[in-house]
């Protein structure tokens, strides 16, 4: 057997329904010992989709109550930031590029980058930050603005892009930074007055690949909630839930890594160095549904400010109001399920989304629409 | 946005770039965020164009083994 086949073979085992079934039974027995259901927040929207797609919530009904978390960067982007992207794209000679999912998120008056593109403005979806650099180099007459979004999973990419642009002395590329910090919002959820009921967390697998598991230690200690960092196959999640159950029974409270094939205690040191070199922490940043959260996002350091699109291009943004019936804010906080929203599946569908949770491929509303509609 | 997928390195182009393959599709990826060197045949986790981690086959195998062991031990009482 050659190397690639052997690895594929191992990978497929993480999808194995038989293994999942036996572990589900084991978890049920353990929870019977524990005596009551456990409320687990899966922070990451990617996990929400795996749980619903594979019906893990149904398999564990009455034993585990899944609370869906804010871990989807598209879902938490504030209305005024979308409006900012739209205004930037209207500047003459600008080509605005961003990750694809963001294009359909409605800003004020249900305007989106996708709709604006249909009016003839130059807006390009990209699938790697380095494509922004290529665009700038190949189109010297254009002002290329990269509207960068994402948690720690994508912020190092943007840092690499900025450093590379400086090295190559690129003069027509700017970044508008919307990079946000997963651990800060996780802690924020545990502090707000309107707290969701959470006993433990399933930690995000790819954010933690960068940050490392040690980064969570102080949160776990302070708030006494176990965190198990999980991979993205059904078996990964079931294993993570089992580890949480064990911690609850044994009254332990730790950070554990289930996703050992990718996550280490230290994380990706090189990526963290890039982050430190290019970004500072912002004093405050707006999140959709959550409002301003102090120290919750990155900004570009002054050494690199010639690439900071927010400083170079001054546009005025006049944001409207969100649709008052959209429950995204509560969905993001784990306080409401998408199906509790009056607009769900009626006025708000993936084809015609009202809130970002229905747009993003990791959004909870989209997951319910795809897997839970009766 | 936060999903990453395992890719196999099929060609190292230079210090910073490689061609990698997943499910028959080949793409150019950046190696700039990888803390350790990789070679052709290695598996990496790729997230929007960047390899962010070399994947550990050993760890994957070990975690599966550990779980199978656990299931075996608990089988009698599962019935
Ligand atoms: S269903 Fe639509 S309107 Fe309702 S919370 Fe979700 S995104 Fe918002």
From TrEMBL, chain A:
Gene3D superfamilies in the record: 6.10.20.100, HypD, alpha/beta domain 1 (3.40.50.11750)
A Pfam family recorded for this sequence: HypD
Gene Ontology annotations of biological process type: protein maturation
GO MF entry, a single one: carbon monoxide binding
Alphabetized UniProt keyword annotations: Iron, Metal-binding
Record protein name field: Hydrogenase formation protein HypD
Family: Belongs to the HypD family.
Organism, scientific name: Thermodesulfobacterium geofontis
From TrEMBL, chain B:
Record GO biological process: protein maturation
Gene3D superfamilies reported for this sequence: 2.30.30.140
Gene Ontology MF, one: iron ion binding
Superkingdom as given in the UniProt entry: Bacteria
InterPro entries cross-referenced by the UniProt entry: Hydrogenase_HupF/HypC (IPR001109)
Database matches in PANTHER family: HYDROGENASE MATURATION FACTOR HYBG
Family statement drawn from the similarity comment of this UniProt entry: Belongs to the HupF/HypC family.
NCBIfam families hit by this protein: hypC_hupF
Protein name per its UniProtKB record: HypC/HybG/HupF family hydrogenase formation chaperone
Organism: Thermodesulfobacterium geofontis
């Amino acid at each position: 057997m050659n190397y690639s086949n052997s690895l594929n073979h191992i990978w497929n085992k993480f999808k194995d329904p038989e293994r999942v079934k036996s572990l589900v039974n084991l978890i049920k027995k353990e929870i019977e010992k524990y005596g009551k259901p456990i409320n687990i927040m899966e922070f990451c929207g990617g996990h929400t989709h795996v749980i619903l797609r594979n019906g893990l919530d149904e398999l564990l009904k009455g034993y585990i109550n899944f609370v869906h978390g804010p871990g989807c960067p598209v879902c938490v982007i504030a209305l005024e930031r979308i409006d900012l992207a739209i205004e930037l794209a209207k500047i003459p000679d600008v080509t605005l590029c961003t990750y694809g999912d963001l294009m359909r998120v409605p800003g004020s008056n249900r305007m989106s980058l996708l709709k604006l593109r249909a009016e003839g403005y130059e807006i390009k979806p990209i699938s790697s930050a380095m494509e922004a650099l290529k665009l700038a180099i190949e189109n010297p007459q254009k002002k290329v603005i990269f509207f960068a979004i994402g948690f720690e999973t994508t912020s190092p990419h943007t840092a690499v892009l900025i450093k590379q642009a400086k090295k190559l002395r690129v003069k027509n590329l700017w970044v508008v930074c919307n990079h946000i910090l997963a651990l800060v919002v996780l802690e924020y959820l545990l502090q707000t007055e309107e707290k969701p009921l959470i006993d433990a967390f399933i930690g995000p697998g790819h954010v933690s690949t960068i940050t490392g598991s040690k980064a969570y230690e102080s949160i776990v200690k302070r708030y006494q909630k176990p965190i198990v960092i999980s991979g993205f196959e059904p078996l990964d999640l079931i294993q993570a839930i089992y580890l949480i159950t064990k911690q609850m029974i044994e009254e332990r409270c730790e950070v554990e890594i289930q996703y050992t094939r990718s996550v280490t205690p230290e994380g990706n040191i090189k990526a963290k160095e890039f982050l430190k070199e290019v970004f500072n922490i912002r004093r405050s940043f707006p999140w959709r549904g959550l409002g301003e959260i102090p120290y919750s996002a990155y900004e570009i350091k002054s050494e690199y400010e010639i690439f900071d699109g927010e400083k170079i291009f001054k546009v005025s943004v006049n944001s409207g109001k969100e649709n008052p019936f959209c429950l995204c804010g509560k969905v993001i906080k784990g306080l409401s399920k998408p199906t509790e929203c009056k607009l769900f599946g009626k006025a708000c569908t993936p084809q015609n989304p009202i809130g970002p949770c229905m747009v993003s491929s990791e959004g909870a509303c989209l997951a319910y629409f795809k897997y839970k509609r009766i | 946005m936060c999903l990453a997928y395992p890719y196999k390195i099929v060609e190292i182009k230079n210090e910073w770039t490689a061609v990698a393959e997943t499910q028959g599709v080949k793409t150019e990826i950046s190696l700039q965020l990888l803390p350790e060197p990789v070679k052709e045949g290695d598996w990496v986790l790729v997230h929007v164009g960047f390899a962010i981690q070399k994947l550990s086959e050993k760890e994957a195998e070990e975690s599966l083994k550990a779980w199978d062991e656990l299931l075996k031990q608990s089988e009698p009482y599962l019935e």
